[in-house]
Design a protein that fits this description.
The complex is a heterodimer of chains A (112) and B (115). Chain A is mainly beta and 112 residues long. Chain A has strands at residues 4-7, 10-14, 19-25, 31-37, 43-49, 55-58, 61-65, 71-76, 85-92, 100-102, 106-111. In chain A, strands 2, 4, 5, 9, 10 and 11 form a six-stranded mixed beta sheet that branches. Helices cover 0% and strands 56% of the residues of chain B. Classes of the chains: A mainly beta (112), B mainly beta (115). Chain A binds chain B through residues 31, 33, 35, 40-45, 48, 50, 88, 90, 92, 97-100, 102-105, and chain B through 4, 31, 33, 40-43, 45, 48, 50, 56, 58, 88, 90, 92, 94, 96-97, 100-109, 111.
Chain lengths: 112, 115
């Protein structure tokens, strides 16, 4: 079965700093999904990547899927306290069951 | 905007009680999912459904059952709640694969405590 490993597990940055979160898969990624979760709440969908080399941006968050489609990175530029939360990556196996496998998440703290 | 709602944000039940968690989506999604989320274990799939009255077991179905009588509604049932079912429960829904791939949209979660 597919496994996703996220690094780092947690991250504390000063407001205004850039940061990167990585998601590495044990198998080829057919679709990679980034979510954000505030403590005690549901997951908010951020971006989906499907093609090797694909890059997407939303406001100050950029996600990339590497050419070999086994790793994705999430980069936040000029972090703000509003970026704080748990970031999770999810992956589809490309099969017909529509299930996603999720990483365990990266806890981001942004200090003002 | 996709909207997935869950019947309760917080729930406290006693051991042995029958517990119903309800999830409703308003986007005509075919697929619906129930997860539980625990510290250190991440999100784990309990059950999912790809059509009305259809269901499949996820990774941890023991102690749970589900019901999907209408396309928009997916219920999770704890037949006899136990303390090890204290957790955050998250419902999600998605289209059959299309332009959005397998993107799942999540509800706000239900924090269940079993005493």
């Amino acid at each position: 079965s597919q496994e996703l490993e996220q690094s780092p597990q947690s991250l504390i940055v000063q407001e205004g700093k850039n940061l990167t979160i990585n998601c590495t898969s044990s198998k080829t990624l057919y679709g990679l999904y980034w979510y954000k979760q505030k403590y005690g709440e549901g997951l908010i969908f951020l971006m989906m990547l499907q093609k090797g080399g694909e890059e997407k941006s939303h406001e100050k968050i950029t996600a990339k899927l590497d050419e070999k489609k086994q790793q994705s990175s999430l980069h936040i530029t000029a972090s703000q306290p509003s970026h704080a939360g748990i970031y999770l990556c999810g992956a589809s196996s490309g099969g017909s069951n529509y299930k996603l496998t999720f990483g365990k998440g990266t806890l981001l703290t942004v200090n003002p | 905007d996709v909207k997935v709602t869950q019947s309760s944000r917080y729930l406290v039940k006693r051991t042995g009680e029958k517990v119903f968690l309800e999830c409703v989506q308003d986007m005509d999604h075919e697929n619906m999912f129930w997860y539980r989320q625990d510290p250190g274990l991440g999100l784990r799939l309990i059950y999912f459904s790809y059509d009305v009255k259809m269901k499949e077991k996820g990774d941890i179905p023991e102690g749970y059952s589900v019901s999907r009588e209408k396309k928009e509604r997916f219920s999770l049932i704890l037949e006899s709640a136990s303390t090890n079912q204290t957790s955050m429960y998250l419902c999600a829904s998605s289209f059959l694969r299309g332009r959005s791939g397998d993107t799942q949209y999540f509800g706000p979660g239900t924090r269940l405590t079993v005493l």
